[in-house]
């Protein structure tokens, strides 16, 4: 599965809870994307979706937050977890503090209840929290497994915003603990070699790539993704200039 978000130049957009404050084109694009992702997760009765990209500046974090927001609009309990402790951005996009978060839980210094932030009635956010030198090691611990288990008990969907695949190993560790994994790429930014390197890294670990979300492109520009057998779903309007 590949989802193609076509667009015209505009500023970065994060969907606000009130639909009448968000451009119709953005809302509809993410509703279509939501339909595909719900279908992917339902096939395995899964809840945990990890989102990454080959490198920075491809729209990964904005996409992750907007997916979480639109899933919550189904009146499902959703949490988005910022696992990119090296360059966290979810708190900035959601305009919330990052005093405590995921890293504090994994270090045993906080509980979920102490760090979770309510964004709206159905969406919660757990920011990255404390800066640590060894996040990849922490994602390999039993503490992270227990965190995911606790979130599965509490929520219908868990969205993980993970670091770029080609920069650090964190995403590959996290992906092995998730039910679905999608990669965000951006036309004119993501190079063929970068996508291929990220894809190969997943294959080495037998991690299935469940979808590719293409920002800033019409379907005609997605040729090299077709090499890997992905089908395109073209949405007529969307947004652009998302930043990692």
Layout: helices, strands, pairs:
Layout: E1 2-5, H1 24-42, E2 48-52, H2 60-72, E3 78-82, H3 90-94, H4 102-106, H5 112-115, E4 117-118, E5 123-126, H6 135-138, H7 142-154, E6 157-161, H8 170-175, E7 180-186, H9 192-204, E8 211-215, H10 223-226, E9 232-235
Helix pairs in contact: 1-2
Quick recap of the structure?
The protein is an alpha/beta fold. Helices cover 35% and strands 17% of the residues. It has a nine-stranded mixed β-sheet with strand order 4-5-3-6-2-7-8-1-9, sandwiched between helices.
Overall description:
By secondary structure, the chain is α/β, with parallel strands linked by helices. The protein has a single domain, classed as P-loop containing nucleotide triphosphate hydrolases (Rossmann fold). Helices cover 35% and strands 17% of the residues. The protein contains ten helices and nine strands. It has a nine-stranded mixed β-sheet, sandwiched between helices. A hairpin with a 4-residue loop joins strand 4 and strand 5 (123-126). The longest helix has 19 residues, at 24-42.
